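Sample pair:
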Amino acid sequence: MKYRRLGNSGLKISEIGLGSWLTYGKAVEDNTAHNCIHKAYELGINFFDTANAYEGGKAEEVLGEALKVYPRSSYVVATKLFFPMGDKPNERGLSRKHILEQCDASLKRLGLDYIDLYQCHRFDPEVPVEETIYALDDLIRQGKILYAGVSEWSAAQIENAVGMGKANHLRPIISNQPIYNMFERYIEKEVLPVCTEKGIGQIVFSPLAQGVLTGKYKPNTEKPTDSRAANDSTNWVINSYLRNDVLECVQQLNGVAEDLGVTLSQLALAWILRHPSISSAIIGASRPQQVEENVKAVDLVLTQDILNEIEKILEKVKDFVPLR
């Protein structure tokens, strides 16, 4: 495994992280989830991502239970808040009340004394940014969290929060967690340049486009019965990728991977890690073997000729807009 600093902070995280969205706490049995987490740790992954909203907190419980056998200093836990955790008006968003209450709830579910990275899962237009960043700073002062970050914030929102924090001598935001893969590249235009300038590292999710960049889905064919796309509870996150032009590009990309003697998923992850401002790519895994395969991407260095070949293939779907 290789490690990178998270933005301008001193925190070092593995280039491949393990996430728990749509997997742990529901779709994957707890014992299997624990095996995946243990395999990740064994292979050098030290960054584990979750959120309070993942299965109503169950994903945090599964992660905390698996990690408790290891020294606390040896791993980094990131969790998030924003989405509803109940039906009451203050059980959602980024108000001071919700932030403080949900931090305590996440600590309890994770079984931890502190959270390494606490992230705002989305931007909250109903709460003043000052209220949110002051609450996060207070949590750092209290020792309940070590660092603060955001997820899926726009460049302008990030720039505003950073400027406000600096003006008030608050501890800086060190990370942003956006979606990023070969087909969803919106961060390249504004988010990446702003974050690079401000010393904010990227921890990207869905690097394999919800499994499309494993090559399991073929153009003009039925969805595999055991796939996420065939599952009515999760297929909404993948359906926008299942266009024939996208899947034809995937087949061409798979040819590039075969020529290099690697898997398509390894190629897709190495393509993401080509960018120095990206600190880690979060994978999901329902089997330990998937973790073993994906971590090998850290040793794959893509030459400029290969990057140009990939770009030529992706040019055919440059108009891709996800349906979310």
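The mean pLDDT is 93.
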